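Form 7-S
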Amino acid sequence: MHTVSGGEVAGILVAVFWAILVSFLAVALARLAQTLRATTRLVAEVTDQAVPLLADASTAVRSAQTQIERVDAIASDVQEVTSNASALSTTVASTFGGPLVKVAAFGYGVRRAVSGRKDDAPAKAPRRTVIVGRTVPGARREKRTRGKKD
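Output:
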């Protein structure tokens, strides 16, 4: 029989240790390979779903840009119409405002002159206004004037 020396025992222990280490590394590499395959599948699925989503998002952004351009054009048209209406209003006011005020003043003066001549005539009954089935007395000024004459 052969006696086993200390060096041989140490060699066997080192060989067993290396075998166990290589086995653990092989298991770890196998799990890592599975994880990488699963990750690759996941990335492929996400890519397959993301590409159409990105295309839809791009279409939506283009559509929104078109709508914003339309709204901008409408807003500028509204601004132009508003400035034109303002200019027209100013023109009408300056053209007709002065003469209309003069005509109104003239009419008022004529009414005053005509009513001044009728002071000698007997006073008429005050005018009454009908509002929704009710009779409302004439103006208060007429009542005060009539009261002072009596």
